[in-house]
Write a structure and sequence with these properties.
Radius of gyration: 24 Å
Oligomer: single chain
Strand content: over 45%
Number of strands: 16
Order of helices and strands: HHEEEEEEEEEEEEEEEE
Structural class: mainly beta
Distance between the termini: 33 Å
Helix content: 10-25%
Number of domains: 1
Shape: elongated
């Protein structure tokens, strides 16, 4: 996960240090750059948001009061084949165009290598900009899982009174000194069937029905030692917020559990280049006020849709093994291990 997130941030910084000095000399192309990178980065950022809403449950039932479990899981959302490239439409840009003048498919971050270029022109002056490569060509062709974005997570759940579970999901902030990423989330699962069951009833149903509401936040920071552009406090920062609402049904056969869920998943990501960036456009050895940019890039990504999950869990005493598949815009495969005390 960290490698892909780092590639996203390096790609934006790399574009700035190689091309911004040239682009700004010809025109104020911030909006065009943001439009381009929205297309380029979406196939990585959107699956990441979908990943964050996975693995909240491996059964529909809730714990007894003060029952708990600790879970380690991994989930991965697949990048559709049609998102490995995007159609460059000149109508979306003010100053960028293709040298050929025709619409072309350009690689996204999930695509492959390219030698294509874009033309930046204000009608008087123009420059050529290299189109950034993707990293999809680095994915093994014969690997049994298609191109996807994996995400590991740790989760703890605690049963409260009223047949309610509260869940905390986290991924400790980790990484090198210049790059760090971390994740935290909270969820609540309410058993609906037990709400209507008589308190003194001794009947134990094999079926369960619960309602889940969950929110997750991830933060990523990249502070390169040298961006190649003069300035101060330069860093890339990403804040990702996701939420999900789901109804979960389950059937317990003791040794094996089956679970099924339907609901909605959504999220938003803010990606910003912070700090000051100085460009000597006039080549006079000093920086004028119009040659200093502050917090030059701010991009927003939003995605959401309905999801359906089918899963199975094997029970070996307190040890549980589970896997599930989610049908959604970015289909997901998840698996994990939990230690559960009812």
């Amino acid at each position: 996960m960290n490698r892909i997130l780092l590639h996203i941030l390096v790609a934006v910084f790399g574009f700035m240090q190689v091309n911004y000095a040239q682009i700004e000399e010809v025109y104020a192309g911030l909006e065009d750059a943001e439009t381009y990178f929205t297309h380029y980065l979406s196939p990585a950022i959107n699956p990441f948001m979908y990943n964050m809403n996975n693995t909240w449950y491996s059964q529909a039932d809730t714990h007894k009061k003060w029952g708990f479990d600790i879970q380690i899981s991994a989930t991965t959302s697949f990048v559709p084949e049609d998102e490995k490239s995007f159609v460059f439409d000149e109508r979306e840009y003010n100053y960028l165009s293709l040298p050929s003048g025709n619409s072309q498919l350009l690689p996204t971050i999930a695509g492959g290598e390219t030698n294509k270029q874009l033309n930046a022109s204000n009608g008087t002056d123009s420059i050529l900009i290299d189109v950034p490569d993707g990293i999809g060509h680095e994915w093994p062709e014969d690997f049994f899982i298609p191109l996807s974005l994996p995400l590991p997570m740790v989760q703890a759940s605690l049963g409260l009174t009223g047949d309610t579970d509260v869940m905390i999901k986290f991924l400790p902030k980790s990484g090198k000194e210049e790059f760090k990423a971390g994740l935290t989330g909270i969820g609540i699962k309410q058993n609906l069937l037990k709400l209507f069951q008589e308190k003194d009833s001794t009947h134990t149903s094999k079926s369960s029905l619960s309602l889940l509401a969950a929110f997750t936040n991830a933060k990523v920071n990249y502070k390169p030692n040298n961006t190649g552009v003069d300035g101060e406090n330069q860093e890339m920062q990403a804040s990702v917020n996701t939420f999900t609402l789901q109804a979960i049904g389950g059937y317990d056969l003791k040794i094996v559990n089956f679970y099924f869920a339907m609901g909605y998943t959504g999220g938003s990501t803010a990606l910003d280049a912070l700090g000051t960036y100085q460009f000597d456009f006039n080549n006079n050895g000093s920086y004028e006020s119009d040659e200093i940019m502050k917090d030059p890039v701010s991009m927003q990504f939003k995605k959401g849709g309905f999801r359906t999950t089918l899963g199975i869990r094997l029970n070996a005493g307190p040890v549980k093994l589970f896997t599930d598949y989610t049908f959604q815009k970015y289909a997901s495969l998840s698996a994990g291990l939990a230690v559960s005390i009812k």
